[in-house]
Amino acid sequence: MNLFRKLTVVNRGLRYKLMIAFCLMSIIPLLSCVYIINIYLFPQLDNPLTVSIVVLVSIIVSLLGLFLAKSLIEPVIDMAIEAKLISGGDYDRRVAAPFEDEVGNLADSINFMTRKIKTNMDEIKSYGRKMGEVNQDIQEKVMALSSLLQIGDIIAAGSLQLDALLEIAVEKVSTVFENGFGILYMPKEEDGDFVAKTSCGMEKENLTGLVIRKDGTGILEKAVANRSVIVLDKSVKPSKDLADFKTASNIANAVIIPLYSSRRNLGLLIVGNRVADFRYKDEDTDMIRVFAKQIAIAIESDILSRRTSELSITDDLTNLYNKRFILNRLEEEIKRAIFYQRPCSFIVFSLDQFDLFRQSHGELAAEEALRRIAKAIRENMMPIGKAARISGFEFAVLLPEKNKREASYVAEEMKKMIEATNLIRDGKAAAKVTVGVSENPIDGATSDELFKRAEEAIRQAKGDSYAK
Fold it and tell me: 399 with 282, same domain?
């Protein structure tokens, strides 16, 4: 077999094969020339047998040349067809290499390049998928940072009440991950147990009705007490308690983060999602921690704001005492009056139809009117008395050592002074006043009772037009 292959032109090069094909194809005209010479120069050799032999040899030689030429051309044609299909994107095709010659080498080269291109294309697709994941991750991080900045701006501006701010914060952190949810627990004032304050995206999770006991021993109670973060995903093998909690709460993945300041526990934030085989990366938990810190700052800021408000004793607009201070001071004066058996009176001044004045002339004119009225009250106040602004259009005066008759006289004099401020715009007076007076112990024995009795006297004086 090897000898036969050596004797044939199968493994020869194209140049060799082309030379053989050329030689074979050249024999036909040579034989024709020989035949013509034989007829015209040597007619004695002309016989049917000789002619037949010449014709037969010519046919055989032509067929051999045709076969050899075809064996050269057809693989090239097939290779061109296969190369066109491969260039169209069908990288699974292979070019057949029938012989070990230049055509075979070219077929092997095309097959090698096809495999290389397919490998590179697979790598490019894999890289594209990875880049898509990276871009999506970057987009999620940008959105999360934008949400954090928005929450920070709201906290700094103080433009929203705490409840509205917490709703926004929980909504933002819930949408950081696909198919996500979030819930915030805060302690009740009466017993300190944690209950759901606000939530977002809750569907199948059994978390909204959950109560985290202050003295409980469950997973969430331990997280609050120890101020520890708990991560639940496919990478964490949960303990029996965690597994029971996941089953009872119907949670797939979640991060549980306690909210606290240096002195108190402020709440508990649970952020999760329903993505199968999900794993939280370190940057994911760090980002949720930042959200939790922002929420804790908002809660702590609200607590400090309320405490500051409670500690404040003056009204910002008029610089008179505020309602909380005057009622507390009234309570103290009542106790002192009872102990020493001395009178104590309380006066309330109500500006009639002041809201209409504000609507007609604007907020700036209304504030100016209140400042001038407060100044008139302060300048005509008795040394032992205390004056306060107790609402948008009401003022109060505390008069120790004065009975109701004496306090009524003082009230009428101060009413005239207030109305004499001449705060009149377009015929409408901002300083028309109705007065109510009460005295301990005739009208009550507590600050609330004296305040309500003075308000009742104003309602009676104004009639049905009074609106508290």
Answer: no
208-233 burial string, b = 16+ CB within 10 Å, else e?
eebebeeeeeebbbebbeeeeebbbb
Q: Reduced to 3 states, what is the DSSP secondary structure of residue 184?
A: strand
Q: Which two tokens stand for residue 101?
A: 């010659």
Q: How many domains would you assign to the chain?
A: 3
Q: d(Cα 459, Cα 455) in Å, to the nearest integer? A: 6
Domain CATH for 203: 3.30.450.40
Centroid of chain to Cα 241: 30
pLDDT score, position 467: 43
**Each residue of 340-379: pLDDT tens digit?**
888 999 999 998 888 888 888 888 888 888 998 898 888 8
**Which is nearest to 68 in space by CA: 35, 95, 101, 42?**
101
Q: Collapse the DSSP code of 425 into the 3-class scheme (helix H, G, I; strand E, B; otherwise coil) and give the result.
A: strand
Task: State the average pLDDT for the chain.
Answer: 80
CA distance 252 to 264: 30
- Of 73, 100, 134, the one marking the end of a domain is 134
In order of 70, 105, 344, the CA distances from 98 in angstroms are 13, 10, 122
105/222 same-domain check:
no
Task: Give the Cα separation of 259 and 270 in Å (integer).
Answer: 11
- Only one residue has tokens 């009208």, namely 443
Residue 89 reports pLDDT greater than 80: no
Total-model pTM: 0.52
Please name which of 417, 429, 440, 445 lies closest in space to residue 347, comparing C-alpha atoms: 440
What is the domain extent for residue 108? 1-134
SS3 330: helix
Q: Which two tokens stand for residue 216?
A: 């409980």
The crossing angle, in degrees rounded to 10, of helices 14-40 and 48-87 is 160
Which residue bears the tokens 């001395």? 342
pLDDT of 19 reads: 59
Residue 346 identity: F
